[in-house]
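Per your request, structure below.
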């Protein structure tokens, strides 16, 4: 327990450059960092936390142990210690576990929204008010699309995304538009490393088809996710470039297929591009 408590402070003091990401959703970045640490107990503790962070339902000891390949008695010891710290909570009726409020409190102490996201956020709010749909800001971190900001729509709609959520880039408009404007060798590396896992029946799982799709995106300057990430959901995304004209993020509008379709997409793309122009002027970025 003392080791975990010590590491939480160490983690905050030494990893503040991850300024956009919630602690509970660091996933691969933190895994890569922790593999260099000699204390295997800390590594296993965070593996448990990251696994729990990817599930919205409560999890049992056996389920966690089987998924991570760690003995049940070890999982029990770690969960018992973390429960004392408030890092996890146990449901007394089912004896299953969920993440605790201590992680939320700890995460809020990290400067998540300073800098770029803070400056962009008001413009995303304005866009959401115009289109009355969900607006997202995302970047590519360790081969995955990471949601950096999200503005909920006034209309009632449930989408399984949140700030800190991550998804393979090939199945989301936010990711495809970033891939389209990346160096081709970097794209090849990502596809070699991650493959093209299937999320829905419409997910592009053929590499040649994806590369042709990326070429179309470069030409028209926007990407569409047509139920490729979640059934019943359509998403339109445009790129956001830095002052050297390198792709640095993407902005999207998401909504149900009944509202985002062939007739409405042109107006949504126009609204997205207008927002990007305003953002880049406000950030004093110069586009070629």
């Amino acid at each position: 327990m003392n080791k975990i408590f010590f590491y939480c402070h160490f983690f905050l003091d030494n990893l503040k450059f991850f300024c956009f990401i919630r602690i509970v959703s660091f996933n691969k970045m933190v895994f890569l960092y922790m593999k260099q640490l000699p204390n295997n107990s800390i590594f296993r503790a965070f593996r448990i936390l990251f696994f729990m962070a990817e599930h919205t339902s409560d999890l049992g000891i056996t389920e966690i142990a089987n998924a991570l390949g760690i003995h049940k008695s070890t999982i029990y010891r770690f969960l018992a210690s973390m429960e004392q710290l408030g890092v996890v909570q146990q449901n007394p009726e089912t004896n299953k576990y969920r993440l605790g409020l201590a992680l939320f409190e700890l995460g809020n102490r990290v400067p998540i929204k300073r800098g770029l996201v803070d400056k962009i956020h008001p413009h995303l709010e304005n866009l959401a008010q115009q289109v009355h749909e969900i607006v997202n800001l995302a970047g590519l971190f360790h081969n995955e699309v990471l949601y950096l900001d999200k503005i909920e729509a006034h209309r009632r709609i449930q989408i399984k995304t949140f700030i800190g959520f991550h998804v393979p880039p090939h199945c989301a408009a936010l990711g495809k538009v970033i891939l389209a404007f990346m160096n081709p060798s970097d794209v090849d590396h990502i596809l070699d490393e991650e493959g093209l896992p299937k999320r829905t029946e419409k997910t592009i799982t053929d590499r040649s088809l994806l590369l042709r799709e990326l070429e179309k995106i470069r030409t028209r300057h926007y990407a569409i996710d047509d139920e490729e990430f979640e059934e019943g959901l359509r998403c339109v995304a445009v790129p956001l470039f830095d002052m050297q004209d390198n792709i640095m993020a993407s902005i999207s509008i998401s909504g149900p297929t009944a509202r985002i379709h062939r007739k409405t997409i042109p107006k949504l793309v126009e609204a997205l591009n207008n927002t990007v122009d305003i953002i880049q002027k406000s950030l004093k970025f110069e586009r070629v």
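Strands lie at 88-90, 97-99, 134-141, 144-151, 166-167, 223-226, 233-241, 247-256.

Regards,
D.
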